[in-house]
Protein 1
Amino acid sequence: MELYARGRHLLRDQPGLVVVAVATLLLVGDLLGKLLGDGLTAARFGGFVWDGLVIGLLIGLAGIGLSLTYSILGFANFAHGDYISWGAFSGWAVAYLLAGIDRYAAGGLLLIGAGDGPAPGDVGVSITNTPLSIVAGLVVAVGFTVGISLLIDRAVYRPIRDADGITLLIASIGVAFALRYLIVFFFYSGRQGVTDISRVPSYDIGGVVINAHELTIVVIALVLMVGVHLLLQRSKLGKAMRAMADNRDLAQVTGIPVEGVIRTTWILGGGLAGAAGYLVVLTQGTIAYDLGWLLLLLIFAAVIMGGIGSVYGAIVGGLVIGLASRLSLIWLTGDLSSFAEPVAFGLMIFVLLFRPEGIFGGVSTA
Amino acid sequence: MSSDQFQTGRLTQFRELLERSDAALVLTAMAAFYLLFLGIGAILNYDVAGLISILGQVTFFTAVYALIVLALNLHWGYAGLFNIGIAGFMAVGVYTMAMLTAPPTGSPPGLGLPVAVGIVGGMLAAALVGLVTALPALRLRADYLAIVTVAISEIIRLTYNSPAFSTFTLPGGIALGTGGASGIGTVPSNPVQAIYYVDPSSAASGTTPIGAAIFGFFEAVFGVVRSAVIVDLTYGLVLAVVVFLVYTLLARVGNSPFGRVLKAIREDEVVAKSLGKDTNRFKIKTFMLGCALMGLAGVLWQGFGTGAVYPQAFRPELTFYIFIAVIIGGAGSNTGSVLGGAVFANLLFLLPQYLPNIIEQTFSIQADPNNFIAAVGPIAAGEIAPLLGYILNQRLPALRFVFVGVLLVYLMQNRPEGLLGHRTETAAAVNLSEGHTAAEQTGSDLTAPEGGVDDE
Amino acid sequence: AGNGGGDGGGRTLSQGVLMPLSGGLGNLGQPIRDGATLPFTLLEGNTEFTIDSQVEDTQTDPNAGQTAASALVDAGYPAVTGAAGSEVTIQVAENVFIPNSVVGCSPASTSPAITDLDDNNLIWRTPPTDALQGEVLAQVASENIGASTAATLYVNNSYGQLLSESFASAYGGTVQNQVSFPKGASSYSSQLSQALSDDPGVVIVIGYPESGVQLFRDFYSEYAGETPFLVTDGLRDSALPSDVGNAMSNVQGTAPLAAGPGNEFFTTEYQDAYDSEPGVFTSQAFDATAVCLLANAAAGENSGPAIAEQMQAVANPGGEEVTPSTLADGLAMAAEGTEIQYKGASSAVDFDDNGDLKAATYELFGFQEGGGVETIEEIAFSA
Amino acid sequence: MSETTATTEVATYDDSLLCVRSLDAGYGDLQILETVDLDVADGEYVTIVGPNGAGKSTTMKSVFGLTTYMGGQIEFNDEPIHGLRPEEIIHHGIGYVPQSDNVFPSLSVTENLEMGAYVLDSVPDDAMQAVYDRFPILEERQGQKAGTMSGGQQQMLAMGRALMLDPDLLLLDEPSAGLAPDLVDDMFDRIDRINDDGTAILMVEQNAKEALKRCDRSYVLVQGKNRYEEDGDALLNDPAVRKQFLGG
Amino acid sequence: MSSESAVDGVGEDSAAINAAGDSGEEPPLRVENLRKEFGGITAVDGASFEVADGSLTGLIGPNGAGKSTTFNCITGVQEPTGGAVYFNGSDIAGRAPNAIVNRGLVRTFQIARELAEMTVLENLMLAPQRQQGEALYRSVLPPFRDGVIEEETELREAVWESLEFFEIDHLAEEQAGNLSGGQRKLLELARALMTDPDMLLLDEPFAGVNPTLEAKLLDRINQLRAEEGLTFLLVEHDMDIIMEHCDPVIVMHQGHVLAEGRPGEIRNNERVVDAYFGEQR
Ligand SMILES: Nc1ncnc2c1ncn2[C@@H]1O[C@H](COP(=O)(O)OP(=O)(O)OP(=O)(O)O)[C@@H](O)[C@H]1O
Ligand SMILES: Nc1ncnc2c1ncn2[C@@H]1O[C@H](COP(=O)(O)OP(=O)(O)OP(=O)(O)O)[C@@H](O)[C@H]1O
Ligand SMILES: [Mg+2]
Ligand SMILES: [Mg+2]
């Protein structure tokens, strides 16, 4: 009786929550049925989960930077995806150069095989084969992206620092166009293989195949996330960032060096974007000028789902988006498999309907 | 009065005219664009038919951009609804039109209904999808709404793109389809063809009496045998009329108590509510009206204008182009929207397509290195031709986008309010300063009783 | 416009080229453009005729393609080599070429939908229709590979959809799954796992190198790599194995064979001019331009309908043989009214009344260790 | 009672801490202040009163480098400070408490105070303790999010933050606005004490009666110009001033 | 002032005020056991009070007592956690703000919320209720638009009058965002009055308004009460105003009503002095 009354109450007050709960139950039930029956092998399920985790971590990593700049500078940076792409291209140009300089001309290597440059199979870049060049590439990817972030901030955003968020957002669309097609200008517009898949060892863990590059990514992503967490928790910088997100004018009046904090924000955001872009290529094995742009909407979905300004929100949002886009394939088979991405977007919209501020909205955790 | 003085006098007069009359402003701008492109045609040695064709294209693209920029201005300029799902709403409009009107025997099959039903159906469908989008819109902050709309637009595009609905059967056994990634190629032909051809779907079917007369005239006077260019130009002019009608409609919406509430919602929705306005209803109505117009723009542009519907035409980039156009013109101003559409269509969309030809016409650069290093390498040896060849022959399309991006940044830094956004256009059906004694003498004689329609 | 022809006293032959030089097919389109403009280079200084040409970029986009095509038509080009992607070709044909009576000859669009265009004989193409390739694929799958079950993985566009269908209807065995994939995605794992889920005897992959690289990378990193694969012309890219990073020994493919009498000459000239191997559809592009030029010379005027009327006459059997190496002479003969037949770089170029090739030779190819494509078998086919 | 129209009549103070001369300032192209003169001596307590829109807040902001500088000079401790950025001005020893939105709502009380000392390498413990001693309620509420505190508490927090660097001059823009009467009194008492401890005060107040009662000297600002300058009580008793600005 | 106010007959103690409800005449505003919680914070904790017809009732209390939150709950800007709000006899708790305004209950905001990028004129033109032209079709279709234009012409007159009264007519064409703090408060008040309400809730309307103008505005409020029977509920920290003009006065403390009564009683109520006035005077 008591239960019934409570249930009715819940249904009236939080219909959305009830729908979500019921839908989740149904899906989990169906999933269990599939796993116990022979609709889905544990290995395939595990594969989906692992894939979802890897892509989710990358989205989360890239999302942290977007989230930080979003809350501190007050605008949605549509060029973030193209920072990611530049991170990928700059990093891999160097990784290629180091891995192949003993055998090939520098030009073709620096352009990652553009024109008549050497093929990836010949250069042979992989974490086990050329670990040093991979690490050097990562460092360059981070450094280069930090560089362009700062340069663009100086040239584009700083002169209009006081403009409203929409003006800045539209300027960032301009930056996005310019950056993306500058990649085409210097490199190429297709998709090109980069890593040497024949030299990437993989491990079979309970039927789930995990390769060394994916492991590398997970490790690096986690290290970077923990690093950012510590940096923001332990230093007064994190507080200054939150203060600026609260009220930039007051921060200025208080004596917080506003420009300095903004610069740091770009360094963090750009660096993480560059790292994410570099690592995305490590897992995909291919590189394309629009790789960041293609990820951008998913990253936005993750950031918004997690709540703008929240570092943990971005990470959680990234994981949710990553897992949702992979696990949905359990149900979306055949021609419907093209709906994996719409499912991720749909999920974001759904979350916003019930939590308009995002999962971690209102709680700044930077 | 010396002729010099006379000239400057004329010039000031003209400038004043432009400031006062929006019609003069738009017409002058269009005249300039027509001249520019006629000049380009002349450089490229076009014959009369070619010149008519280029004028037709200028008219067509100006009109379709103006149309959709106007619709966006209603959302963004007036109500502050940050809709970046424009491409999706256009897609809904044109797809619905195509699916309603495509022949049932075609591949994919359609319903074979009359074109008029298709147009209205397309607008209604876009409005309905707008309604569904507006429901979350009511709860969300501007930038969240933006992400939701772009997500919905992507969902729409991916749905049309998906093979799942390539063809499907409705419950009643009627077959219908989106054509998946190959789209719908059997869109009904452009309605203006009915003026000229006996069977509007085929130029070979013979000309109507009007068609015969007009084609005959052009052939006799200008020696134009390509009748298609005349049909295209006609369509452009029809679209210009549509733009005028939509402009009038939106000017009235803006210059009215309705528009005033929209403006208030843009500024502070809680205040609008606390002044007794049912903001949700205003937002929904506005969103639906704007989406219907976007659907219409989709039908007129991607449907009749190009004769086929493909999902890839509705990528988010299209939305950004429209946004760029609205910014160029100045958000909030309808005249600015038309101008912004014109500037974008002509200077950023069409002109770059002709630019390579003009450059090639002037200098011929044979060098054609296929990568950047090969292009810059020779510079050390003092050779600049490879780089130029690389730029012109290999990377000009990419540089066009770089240019668009840089221009956008420049605009945001130097003229964020756009060409006409600085004009404060008071949202009221009458001139508010009038009626007050102190302000009476200023400009009251200039104001037409209809308020904004012509001087917006 | 490269005004070739030097001091020749003949009239001007105008020929446009419309190709995707940027966008999704940009990488594919650039070499095809090179093939299409090679005749201009070869003829320069060797003929009485002045040749006027112009290249336009479709950006792999139907809308931009339409504007680009209009630019060619407005500039007075009566015939155009192009376009490449089937969507763009159809769109441009219906909205620009046909209404303005301009000849379009595509060197790369293989969609069966092009056959049925209501085109006043204005639209032609030098590669065979995929209706044929579907049959070739089916034959190879059952006979050469001996598979009784198959799955298809096709790129989600007109090319992929129709070719997958035409394979499925021609195939004698069971088609277990037809899985579509989007162009340019960053992972194809899920599509692969679906296609492979019922352990098919062969997997047909219809797509372009851009997606192929990713797809085969995903395949080799996640599966043992033993299932036989069959790819189509779109994936006949000698760089594929090295881009993928695998020898791809389980993969074979079918493609229209570039086996015209003039192929050898074409290959050398192409290498000379561009310093790289001719790619897929480059020889078809050469032939498309060559036939249009010949028809133009025969027509005696830069007029679309007149050229259209001569297309079959200059290409189909009967008369003096003209090959890529004798193109200059061919133009002179055509202009004089001599009956000629063009036998090209890709094929003998014999048009039926729909503007399609009457007969085609396909090759079954495989990838070589260390890059390169080798022909395993030639399969002749006639419609 | 002296009506000052030009700089000449303004008494010059040799020991002037803040010295504003012929200041023109505004927002963008819009000029608000016209030849404003202002002096605050070391340890002095000065108020600015005037009708709404007179430019009082603008004057404060101008001293702190937050408006568009258009001419004239501002000297602090005999060094020109016009054209400097706020964080530099803070280094010179000026604290500023804006009229509204003057705390960081999502930061805790302690964090808000820490921000006040951001320009230093580390937060001086004694400074923090001094603020707590002055405003014990803040010590009680150390961990509370500033945004959830009441209006009066926020006002104290804002003042505490400005005091973290122990400035020589404190700019206060309507510190009593919106406070309950007990807090108004309390606030003025606290300001008195801050002043007694040696910090010079420049304050804008609409609660002119109270402000004039307590200050050493006052300026009346009208339409961006100095109108009167006098010690507080004198202004309070001036019938013209009463009528025009103090509501009779 | 208070001598001529409509609540003259109210008895000496607060119970008598409540009696007004018993005497058969429903007061325009009755708040019953109103509650509002934010997460852990209870901002309004069971507040109950009434506002008599035509009165200028004062609502005072320490900072954070819940006055603004009470306003927000009454006017629908926030949804109350519990309790009821009766306006002219019907329960309006939880209704949309616009619905409440339509019934004639209007409020101003403590921190003025001007529509920054609209002119002062537009701000005021927005306020009148039930404008014909707010229907889309009427604004657009020719046969109806004439009526809209006529109505706009009439509203314009009223708006200019109001501007002149509030002494901001020189700012008519100015963007509201460029006004000074005090000017914004004036605009806020003028705009609320333009809605032609039956009852107004004013949240510290005079904070930051200079005293001369303040006196004039109070005169106007009293005039509106006398001539048009408007009812006012006023939050104010300036005790001079409360004592001189308000009757009765309701004192809130920690979310509930601590006391209510005539200003004189309140002044001397020990608990109120403790909680609110402190050692002042
Ligand atoms: N950001 C701004 N942009 C443009 N004009 C402004 C801005 N801020 C204030 N003003 C204008 O400057 C003038 C002075 O404003 P200021 O805020 O200094 O007045 P104030 O004396 O503090 O008045 P109040 O007592 O009402 O706060 C006003 O006319 C106001 O409209
Ligand atoms: N949105 C909110 N979230 C959390 N707490 C809130 C919120 N709004 C108000 N409060 C809290 O509720 C309490 C009452 O606030 P309210 O604004 O109603 O006070 P008030 O009586 O109007 O005070 P003042 O005179 O300072 O304006 C305060 O403790 C305040 O911190
Ligand atoms: Mg002020
Ligand atoms: Mg309050």
Note: The pocket of magnesium ion (ligand 4) is lined by residues E 67-68, 110, 203 (CB under 6 Å).
Protein 2
Amino acid sequence: MNKRSKRFVAVMITAASVLSSASIAKAENVTGGGASFPVQFLTPAIAEFNKTFGHNLTYTSTGSGTGKKNFKSGTFKFAGTDSAVGSKDLPTFGWTYIPYVAGAIAIAYRLDELGGATLSLSPGTINGIFGGTVERWNHPSIANDIKTNPTWANQKKKSDVRGATALWENISTTSAKVTVSMLPATLKSNKGKKIEWYNDKTKKVLKSLTVGSKAEVNMTSRVKPTDTFSIKVGGKTIATFKQVKVTLPDRAIQVVYRADTSGTTNNFCQYMKGAVNSDWVINDAFQSCVPGGVTKFGSRFVGQPQNNNQANYIADTNGAIGYAEVAYVTDPTRASKGIRAANIRNAAGAFVAPTAAGYNSHLAGGAQDSRGLISFDWKQTTNKTAYSLGAVTYGLCQTSSDAKNKVVAQFFEWMLKDFGPKNAEALGYTPILGASAAKGVDLAKKCGAG
Amino acid sequence: MTQTQITTNQSANQQNGETSKFIGLETQGVHAWFGKHHALSNVSLRFPERTVTGLIGPSGCGKSTFIRLLNRMHEFIPSAAMAGSVLLNGSDIYAPEEDPAMIRLKVGMVFQKPNPFPAMTIRENVLAGIKLAHLKRSNHDEIVEQCLTRAGLWKEVKDRLQASGGSLSGGQQQRLCIARSLAVEPQVLLMDEPCSALDPGSTLRIEETIKELAEKITVIIVTHNMQQASRVSDHCAFFLTDGGPGYLVEADATRKMFTNPTDSRTADYVQGKFG
Amino acid sequence: MSTVANAGQLTTAEPRRPWAVSRSKRLLGFGRMLTFAVAAFVATILTPLANFDGWAVAFLLINLAWVIGIASKLGAKERRDAVLRVVITSLAVLAFVPWLSILVTVILKGYRAVYPGYFISDMRTSTPDDELNIGGAGHAIVGSLIMVAIATVVTLPLGILTGIYLTEVRGRLTFLVRFIVQSMAGVPSVVAGLFIFATVVKSMGQYSGLAGGLALAVLMLPTVSRTAEEVLKLVPDDIRSAGYALGARQWRTALLVVLPTVRAGLSTAAILGVARVIGETAPLLLTSLNTNGFVWNPIGGTVASLPTYIFAMFMYGTEYSNARAWTGSLVLLALVFFFFIIARRLGNKSALKANANRRK
Amino acid sequence: MTIVETPEPRQMMVVYSRADRIFRRIVTGGALTSLLLLGFITAFLVMRSAETFRQFGLDFITGSEWFSAGEDPLGGAVEGAVEEVDESVFSIGPMIVGSLVVALIAMLIALPLSIGGALYIEFYAPRSIYRVLVSLLDLAAAIPSLIFGLWGIQVFTAIGVRWATLLNDRLSFIPIFSVEFENFGRSPFVAGCVLAALVVPITTSVSREVYSRTPRDLIDTCFALGGSKWGAIRSVVMPYGKSGVIAGAMLGLGRALGETVAIYLMLNLVFRYSFEILDSAGGNVASMIALKFGEATDKEISALIASGLVLFIITLIVNMIASSIVARTTPRA
């Protein structure tokens, strides 16, 4: 054996030992796949799970339909889906649904003329835009929504306190709510300091709180449209809100939809049909769910494959609007290009931002059946905090006793109890909480239980 | 036209190896066609043993076709046909029960362009026939040396037997091809214009080789070159065509053909009056 | 004669190249190009032309204008020649620009996520959005190589047999086989994927490296068969005749003489086939899918591959995942180039080279 | 001279020994595998798409609507949801037309570039970089289309949109350059440009190959007769290489028609016949298959396979034309 081949063998042995040590004994290879909607939640979850428990779980985003078919044929040990399993895809073996995470779908847009202000849209306007009747941004229905929900914009480019942010929400034309949220480190270093809602014009403190252990605190106050307000932490300003006069430009609206068939589209269409206009058709293809189809709109409606391309296109195009899972909209790279998520008016008449809290509030108003499926209630006329547009995504697992199924059970239980509540929100998703989570854990325990 | 015969003055001689006794090679009324084209008509010839027979004649007179008929290489051309018989040791090589591969083993061939096997070394080239025909030989080194010596190449290549056959000069390559043909111990060696692609120096060497070979085996050589025919051959056969199929004009001892031919056309041709 | 005597005395001749372009002329040409480049830059500022592509167009137009301008001084023939020269050079530049742009893009965007671990670690415990010095594409590289190996093992014998059939055996179906092989080169890759999905994946009940390899084999077979045929055709008939004349049977001639002669060429055929299929994405999305970890078992479920890895990283849609996608592209391109260079070197070594040249 | 009767020719058949016959049988078997494979693929496509063709007939090819009724979506979260009447309609007319349009755009751009590139390499490039150029060209032909797609969407789209805007500004009076909506990013034109970039190396490579086989003495003769380069190229090289260039173009066209990933990323698919090439609305069969596959119902999968069959037949025809041109015109050695 010459020197070079000796070195080669040495390298191979090292590589082999590295690889074998990575796959600890009893580690299970478990393959699953399906819906692309939860991918940005599932990917970090799986990485963390594999790291913690030493297994090798894989999830490939193939779309819910393929996921369900592969689950039925046993090709996937577990699957993810945003919709119920159809009669043709019902597996012949024992199986169960597990609701494990949800996510708000944002109406994402970019309109530079707004100067970063957040748009508020009523269901009627959304119907007009996505149904093709509202063609330009200065359409009266959009202007009207702004009038009923004046836009307050943060004038301060950068918060003076690192890791602390403030969010403004209108409660009515004369009152507003401010939510201050802080990262754990910021919370620690600012403990005991005062959070103040300060009126810059009258130089008065409207509300004041002390930084405690809660990462998110709310303050509500009456406001005058002409005043300017600062939110301060320990005397340092983190945001300055001012009602901005928005002049809507005479610019064409470019609707950007998902070109591929997807559960996101399906859930968007469910919302449109349930909460907005019953003419909509529930379908995985956007072209098929708009009343009358999009063909007649030609290139004014543009399809993009996959969430990220759709979100990129909106972020790159002034005047574009579309729908996408929140995680793809709040991403800093795209946000810096000017993509924003609109507030949507709910059945109770309030304009709500696509947050985990808002969507959870909406889900809490729905019902859950014995299979774990959560149904939406579009008519929650008293729930002012609900953000109604979103999707719940389910895991599918086999109940037969099998080491791999047990790993799947462990995985879903861990996500519901541990990973989800801790991380879902930061990843742009909505954790399943409360009774639904308890039900989910029960269902997860059925996997591999025999 | 009278049938021409070259009679042998030597009796059939014993050959080495497992091959059957060599009685002689002769053709009887051989014709050849390419599709509808009648290329060669009615050639009857007998080749004296351990001599060199030169086949001469102008281009297109069917010499090459004829020589390829002698070891069944003719049939590789699609649409080729023949008539008559070619007798090797008294039996027709075109008889249905004859195995062409066995015929070719007894009747070797050297081609116009040197064609050593490019992927083989000089040594492997010499032994190629043994390997290809699946012959059982144990004395490989001996065969290599013997064949290369007979082909007049041994001194030049003995130190680089492992070099590629393609690394030799054209003349050396052709001698390598001769050595390769000798390794399977043929009774007859056909040479189809073996020097036409070579320079005069190499040609001379090959001609010497041919003369030496004829001490042991029968050589049949097609050549365009009158000087070459007169230098190397013991007998000559003159082919001609009048636009139709080629035919044999006459065959005789070379000296007679070049000095006192029977047919006037032969005289004209060997004197270079046409061709 | 005196002229002859003079000629004889010229023993030390200086080598000269009267046709060469002089130094000053070259400098002049360079200066002219520089001037045009600046002019083109000015044009991009003053006209709607923008960016590098606009500059290039302006540059070419100015060149063309100059040639037509000076051409008025020339005869009709020279004028046509000069214009043709600029037009053809421009077209050639335009033909090469996209691919150079791709090369530059892949390198510039791809080098970010390169670190030694990229080649040996997988994504089992890391996310596409993690720091770029965590995780890697080792599993995808291994998966790609396994699938390509399967495709090669399946295709090479079939391709070579087809090549031998077309050149040595030449049976009754020669025309049909050649025709079908050429037609198969046009099977859209997504159709090949659908076919293997419906047959192999469905019957095995799982996605697998084997299925992926077979899908690639469908796409690779025509390339290999055709190249094999081309290479075998280059073997001069003399060589075959020499084999037969030595008393060899056809099969021994084919296997012991013809095939060894084109060994290098056949390796080239295989490698060209590999280079052709290693970047195929669509069929793998339907047959082998993707996974996060190393999978060595070709029938043990989903397997990652470089194309599906790149695709998944790109679709994940974050800054870091995008960087990973480009690094994957860099690795993929490097692999393709690597195979190509091997093919080239083998091709150059080919014993047939000399023969092929002689034929020309 | 006695006239010799010419005997009947004895037809000669190459007789093979047993070993040879076995060898030939094995080789033939290997070669027939390719035939069988293609047969299997075709049979599979025909079988799996039969349902679709039975239901929609020719409308599948001429119609322009694609609607897949989903299977009881989550909205009705009740056990055993009611099966509705299946209203699915599948037809791919605009996708076929769109595939042809994009491929034609690609070829129109690629062809002059390829011919120019090939002529440059063979007749203008300095000899010192000739080999480098040829190698680069072959390498370019091997770049995976996925990378073209990434490059297209992240680098080229911006450039393509600028060109499209310019074309639209100046030439919108020509119908194909007019747009309904000023949105050029995902138009057949931009996608066609990327496809052209993908096809150029292939067609250039083939053309160059053919040009390089132009007999040198013909060109030299041309020069010796006082001809210019222009004359040599026009009167010797171009006619000699014409069929090769056409064959190369057909190969490129076949590739352009079947391309999936690059188009998947670059083109907005709309089920409507559209010939406005700057408008972000086009069609493509291959990428439609990829787009619809993930969430497809069983019936939709049959329709997708039927689309695959149609695409297959189209590319097959193109390739047949290409190979027959090649077969007819390959210079005989």
Note: Chain C has two domains: 23-112, 138-359.
